[in-house]
Amino acid sequence: MTQTEQYRFPKDFWWGSSASATQTEGAADRDGKGQNIWDYWFEKEPHRFFDHVGPAATSQFYDNYKEDIRLMKELGHNSFRMSISWSRLIPDGTGELNAKAAEFYHSVIDELIVNGIEPFVNLFHFDMPMELQKIGGWVNRETVDAYENYARTCFRLFGGRVKKWFTHNEPIVPVEGGYLYDFHYPNKVDFKEAVQVGFHTMLSSARAIQAYREMKQDGKIGIILNLTPSYPRSSHPADVKAGEIADAFFNRSFLDPSVKGEFPKELVAILKNEGFVPDYKKEDLEVIKHNTVDLLGVNYYQPRRVKAKEHLPNPDAPFLPDRYFDPYVMPGRKMNPHRGWEIYEKGVYDILINLKENYGNIECFISENGMGVEGEERFRDEQGIIQDDYRIEFIKEHLKWIHRAIQEGSNVKGYHLWTFMDNWSWTNAYKNRYGFVSVNLEKDGERTVKKSGNWFKKVAEQHGF
Ligand code: BG6
User: Fold this and answer.
1) What is the spatial distance between Cα 273 and Cα 265, in angstroms, rounded to a whole number?
2) pLDDT class for 337, splitting at 50, 70, 90?
C-alpha cells in the first residue's frame, strides 16, 4: 500500500470508541451501588494494583458524562460502546433494583442519542457483583439465572432506545484472570473451575439472547470477543498443532458456540481426555445451539505466537492450557516500545478474513483496538496537547488492513478505539493511557483532547483518510 493511496470507508461506517463502567464511572461507593469483585479485591489487597490506585474514583464519568458525551460528538463519534455496571443497577446481583442507577443509565443513553451517538450497550465487562462472587460467581449455576434476570431488566428498562446489545466483553479474560493466571479476583489456579466458569458464561450469553428474542426486542444482540490470532512459529506440524490448540482454547472456545452454536471438537476432545468436562444439563447445549449472535464485536490488540513445547511439563504442576504449547518470541517483531506488546496490524485482516471464510461472514465490527502508553505526559507540547503521533500511526495502519478486508468482502461495519478517555485499567490502574482524550488525575480529572482525537474527528467526518 502506498502513502498516497486513499482509504475511503462506507458512509454509514461506525466510528467511535469503547469503554466500560468500572473503568470510567467512578462513584463506586455512591448512590446505592453494591460492591463488585474489583471494589472488594482492592480493599483487601491494594498492593496488587499499580500505584495502589483502586476503582473508587476512576475517570468520573458518573459526574461528567454530559461533558464527556459532548466531547465525543466533537470528535466525530456516531457510536459509543459502554457497559452497565451490574452491581450498580442491582446491588446484590439479584433482587432490588437501584432506582438511582436506572436513572443514571437512562440519562446517559438519552444524552448519547440527543448528540447523534448510537449507544452500544454491553452487559458484563469483568465486574461480577461481590454478593454473587461469594456464592462462587460463574462457577455457580445460580449466577447464570441471576444474569438472565439482570439482562431481562436491562432490555425492559433500556431496550426501547438501545438497539445494539452485547452479552459479554472478552469472556475468556475472567476465565484466564480469575481461574488460571492470577490477574483477576478470586485469583485461583484451578482448571476445573476455569472450564466451569467458561461454560456458564457461554450459557449465560445464550440465555440472554434467548430472553432478548422472547421479549420481542427489535435491535441486534451480540458478544464481544478478543480474537487473538495464534500464529505458529513455523510450518512444522508440531508448531502448527500448537497454534491450533491455542486457537481452540483462547478464540474458538467462545467464537464457535457464539456464532455456530457448537463447541470446537478439538477443545472438547482435550477436555474429555484430561478429565475436565464441566457440569451441564443436556438442554443447555440446545439453548446454546439455537441462540447464536446477530453481531460480533472483535477486540484486537496483539497476536499470539506459539511453538511446540520445548520441555515435558511438570506432571505435578496445575493443569494449564500451556501444557500444549509454548509462547514464541519472534525475532524482528515490531513492538509498542511504551507498553511491551507486539504490534502486528495484519492480524486484524486475518481475523476478518477468517470470519468471512469460516463463520458465514457474520456482521461484525472492531470493538476495541488501541495502544497503551506509559508516561504519556512527556509528549505534551506547549499548548498542552499530547502529541500522540504513535497512536495515529497505529490506528491508521490497522484501518488500512480493515479497508482491504472490506474490499475483499468482509462484513465489518465499524471501528471503535479503546478508549475514549484515559481510564482505569484493572490491576494496571492508570499506568498505561489509551484515550483520545487525556484525563489529568493531578487536576481533578481535567480532559484535554490529544492529537489523535483531532485526527480521528477528520477521519470520521471524511469517511477515511
Ligand atoms: C481489553 C479490555 O482487554 O483491553 C479492557 O476489554 C482493557 O477492559 C484493555 O482495559 C486494555 O488492556 P490493559 O491491560 O492495558 O488495561
Assistant:
1) 12
2) confident
The alpha carbon of 377 and the centre of ligand 1 are apart by a number of angstroms equal to 20
Instruction: State which amino acid sits at residue 364.
Output: C
The CA 424 to ligand 1 mean position distance, Å, reads 9
- Who has greater pLDDT, 111 or 340? 111
Query: Exposed/middle/buried for 325, CB within 10 Å: 0-12, 13-18, 19+?
Result: buried
Q: Beta strands 304-307 and 373-374: pairing type?
A: unpaired
Residue 361 above 80 pLDDT? Answer: yes
- For 146, half-sphere exposure in the C-beta direction (CA atoms, 13 angstrom radius) is 27
Ligand 1: which residues within 6 Å by Cβ?
20, 23, 169-170, 226, 299, 368, 372, 418, 425-426, 428, 432
Cβ atoms of residues 166 and 222 within 8 Å:
yes
Alpha carbon 241 to its chain's center: 27
The type of residue at 210 is Q
Model pLDDT for residues 107-154, shown as the tens digit of each residue: 999 999 999 999 999 999 999 999 999 999 999 999 999 999 999 999
